[in-house]
């Protein structure tokens, strides 16, 4: 029996118009169509090459041209009928390897369309292929180029956390072998754009659960890093997401709280000379360290004063002012006294006569006084006190609700938007942060908090949205690019205006470095000249953290950023020819500038709760070169599956 790669037959063989052949319209029964007429079975058996087998089956089943967008759109409209035909034939001819492999080839071509691919997997496409792998193993012993198989592996990697049957199937694969072979194939001179892009997506989606296999194959990691030089935003996003996934399992949790006791112990000491010079250039009195020390002193004086005068209104005014000055304005402590036996400080046992025992409990008590008086402006202060208390209680949702109600009364209060920016939903966070930055009643601390929240969440939304976009024609593409540009602009503002010792400086720098790389793409100098100033700032930020004896956790962003920076030059050198070939075969995408009117309009649409909702199938079809079915079966070999 002739295998793949043979010459194509000449003119198509004429077939008699039998009753079976006339039952090709969508309205006819799938049961009849699943019975391939004898003349077609004979021609399939004599076909040279798997592409010809697929052509014969497409002709018989009346399936539109799968290499064109118009053909794929027709499949969208008739998917159920086409699926019934193919599924019935697959079951009927489960021992006929030629028909079975031809049907899988049709499925493979359909996988080039994201929506059709999802529908196939929902119908159990993977389970059927898995049950027939015995057919593929004798046919191919060597793994060769086969782009159309990669969408299958991509989908396996993408859905493994959601579908237990897919998880089981993925575990049967030797993913170390898959990663090695896919990496080898996309490096070959004849690798198509389709193979390179889907290979990148497979590696990206496999990176989290197969990180050890990828670390053991540095070339695969280098490929993701080098892919950041693609001319297409979607490819760069896929590769950056892949690098981030590599470090998800081994990353440490970011430090949310500050060890204030240790911080102030070291803050009383002189900082190293180079750090003092940095703060001096910025303005020592504007530095976060000095503001925190000043706030601590003011808080201590206010607490000692309320012990004497019992004036909760006066205390509330001071606390509401301190809360918008620094993140750790209210220490999580209580009144203390000295143990006469040991001389150590301990929680006070005497009755203070105040309606609170811990400092945080003072917040709602002072807020209650404000609400009772209802003086002009004091309801805002009451909300600020309640929000801070709820934040310290880790009840972020309740804090956001107080902020939402406060905005109805005073839409210019930035602290209310800040409360909502602490929620988990990136879209809600970004919308609140951007609106908060426009509020008139604000402070430098709130501005910087909103900026860093905007950077992080716009960056996350950009990664999510662009990875889902199929091409520059997809509305998601415009929205994703707008997110990246917003994050880039806000990160630069933060670096230019925030105190050098701001504790969020490191995280903003991680994003700033990654955004610079993904936005500049192929225009970035291989020696990373354009981001050296940010790398220097990151080193200085680390020095500030160490000077106050605070931890520097190896977060996912930190590890990914470091890996890209350290491996960028070597990765570009190794994969330069492949990326150049990919770029030469890619369509030119619209040039985007951070301050362009288009970017601003897309972002404003998002902020105003408008959505770009054109989800037509035609715009979800990725523009890829023609996919040849023979290439798929060469990857379905015994070595991989």
From TrEMBL:
This is Set and mynd domain-containing protein 3. Residues 1-26 are annotated as: Disordered.
């Amino acid at each position: 029996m002739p295998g793949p790669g043979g010459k194509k037959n000449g003119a198509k063989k004429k077939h008699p118009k039998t009753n079976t052949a006339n039952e090709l319209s969508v309205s006819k029964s799938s049961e009849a169509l699943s019975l391939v007429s004898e003349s077609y079975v004979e021609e399939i058996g004599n076909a040279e090459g798997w592409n010809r087998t697929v052509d014969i089956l497409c002709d018989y089943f009346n399936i539109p041209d799968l290499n064109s967008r118009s053909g794929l759109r027709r499949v969208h409209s008739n998917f159920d009928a086409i699926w019934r035909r193919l599924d019935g034939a697959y079951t009927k001819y489960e021992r006929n390897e030629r028909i079975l492999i031809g049907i899988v080839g049709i499925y493979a071509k359909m996988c080039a369309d994201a929506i059709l691919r999802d529908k196939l997997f929902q119908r159990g496409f993977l389970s059927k292929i898995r049950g027939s792998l015995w057919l593929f193993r004798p046919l191919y012993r060597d793994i060769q180029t086969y782009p159309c198989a990669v969408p299958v592996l991509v989908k396996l990697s993408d859905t493994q956390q959601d579908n237990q049957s897919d998880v089981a199937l993925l575990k049967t694969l030797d993913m170390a072998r898959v990663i090695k072979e896919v990496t080898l194939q996309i490096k070959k001179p004849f690798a198509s754009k389709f193979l390179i892009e889907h290979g990148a997506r497979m590696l990206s989606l496999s990176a989290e659960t197969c990180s050890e296999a990828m670390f053991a194959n540095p070339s695969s990691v280098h490929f993701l890093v080098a892919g950041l030089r693609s001319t297409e935003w979607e490819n760069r996003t896929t590769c950056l997401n892949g690098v981030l996934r590599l470090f998800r399992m081994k990353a440490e949790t970011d430090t949310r709280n500050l060890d204030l006791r240790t911080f102030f112990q070291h803050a009383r000491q002189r900082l190293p000379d180079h750090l003092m010079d940095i703060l001096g250039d910025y303005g020592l009195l504007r530095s976060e360290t000095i503001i925190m020390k000043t706030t601590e002193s003011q808080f201590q004086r206010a607490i000692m004063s309320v012990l004497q005068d019992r004036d909760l209104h006066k205390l509330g005014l001071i606390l509401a002012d301190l809360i918008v000055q620094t993140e750790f304005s209210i220490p999580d402590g209580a009144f203390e006294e000295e143990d006469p036996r040991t001389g150590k400080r301990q929680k006070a046992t005497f009755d203070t006569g105040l309606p609170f025992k811990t400092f945080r409990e003072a917040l709602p008590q002072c807020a209650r006084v404000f609400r009772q008086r209802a003086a002009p402006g004091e309801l805002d202060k009451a909300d600020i006190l309640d929000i801070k208390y709820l934040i310290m209680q880790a009840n972020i949702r309740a804090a956001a609700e107080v902020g939402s109600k406060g905005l109805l009364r005073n839409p210019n209060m930035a602290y209310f938007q800040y409360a909502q920016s602490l929620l988990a939903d990136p879209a809600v966070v970004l919308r609140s942060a951007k609106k908060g930055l426009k509020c008139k009643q604000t402070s430098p601390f709130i501005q910087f908090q909103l900026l860093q929240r905007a950077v992080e969440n716009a960056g996350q939304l950009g990664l999510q949205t662009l990875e889902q976009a199929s091409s520059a024609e997809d509305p998601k593409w415009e929205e994703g690019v707008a997110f990246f540009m917003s994050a880039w602009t806000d990160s630069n503002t933060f670096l230019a205006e925030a105190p050098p010792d701001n504790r969020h400086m490191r995280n903003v720098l991680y994003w700033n470095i990654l955004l610079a790389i993904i936005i500049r793409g192929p225009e970035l100098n291989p020696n990373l000249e354009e981001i050296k100033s940010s790398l220097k700032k990151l080193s200085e930020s680390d020095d500030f953290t160490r000077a106050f004896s605070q931890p520097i956790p190896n977060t996912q962003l930190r590890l990914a950023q470091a890996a890209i920076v350290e491996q960028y030059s070597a990765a570009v050198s190794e994969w330069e020819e492949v990326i150049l070939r990919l770029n030469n075969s890619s369509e030119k995408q619209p040039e985007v500038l951070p301050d362009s009117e288009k970017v601003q309009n897309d972002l404003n649409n998002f902020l105003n709760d408008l959505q770009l909702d054109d989800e037509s199938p035609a715009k979800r079809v990725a523009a890829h070169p023609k996919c040849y079915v023979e290439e798929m079966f060469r990857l379905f070999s015994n070595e991989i599956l």
